[in-house]
Structure prediction request, 302 residues.
Amino acid sequence: MTLLDRAIVRLLPAVPKPVVQLFSERYIAGETLHEAERVVHRLNAKGKRATIDVLGEDVTNPEEAQAIVQAYVDALDSIAEQRLDSNISVKPTALGLDLAIELFHDNLEILVSRAQTYGTFVRIDMEDSSTTDDTLHTYRRLREEGHENVGVVLQSHLRRTYDDVRSLADLKPNVRLCKGIYVEPPSIAFTDDDAIRANFLRCLDALLEIGAYVGIATHDEWLIRESLERVESREGRYEFQMLLGVRERRATELVAEGHPLRVYVPYGRHWYQYSLRRLQENPAMAGTVARATVGRMLGRGG
Ligand SMILES: Cc1cc2nc3c(=O)[nH]c(=O)nc-3n(C[C@H](O)[C@H](O)[C@H](O)COP(=O)(O)OP(=O)(O)OC[C@H]3O[C@@H](n4cnc5c(N)ncnc54)[C@H](O)[C@@H]3O)c2cc1C
Prediction:
């Protein structure tokens, strides 16, 4: 991404919603569960696993959180009915974490228990650093309450993450490892690309060493290659993970080479925040969208 693009990308929240929607269609399965099911069927037919995300974050009352829980229950039911190879990914704030940690725990437990009856799995996405302690605490609590079918996410841009891996060791955790998308201050996060990558590999090594199951969630070719060397003799202990609409050809190659791969499939009416994040990290698209919009605003069309 050029410096100009990076600068323009910060203006993306000023881009009109219809423009964001147009450019972000590839990242979203649709607005309904039915559309998400269709996408998962298509992925499964190509040997790719899925994880379904009901879009929605920062709920402001327990009823909104309840509606999201219900949407996930519907998703779990239909995954089972249609025998889809998919689990679910949930955002702590969408389940009520900002309202009360107890509410988050209880809502999550409803989903983990339901998933357990179907033999499927719940991944707790990781949000910004203000939620990390509560998210890891709730993950540990559920595991100590006897739930095995739940996993968490760690972000390699956070300086604390290596210590978090060590402190989870006794649980033999199931961890999705990613770089981390939320903007964090340098006091707690690496901001340099090379440092984030180095920490990714350091944490991946540590996770493999403690016997964790690892979801290697990256589209970064260098990290994919480095990870491939590390998982060579770890069958059944890892999978690659990618986002819907990103590097699909590379995902297909990994599957053809015999590596398990899961695609993150978001759907729902609250597509805006998720779409902004995807456009902001797309090196080609962000600049194009932003220039088109600035051009419009300046009356130059395009
Ligand atoms: C399955 C999955 C789950 C995730 N869950 C979380 C989570 O719970 N919490 C969290 O903080 N973050 C999460 N992330 C996001 C992650 O933290 C990164 O922000 C994101 O994956 C981009 O980092 P990267 O490793 O792909 O490297 P990058 O350096 O950002 O990307 C590498 C290359 O991939 C391609 N690429 C990347 N993004 C795009 C895009 N949007 N459009 C087009 N091309 C693109 C480009 O070619 C780019 O050069 C998740 C990512 C994945 C894949």
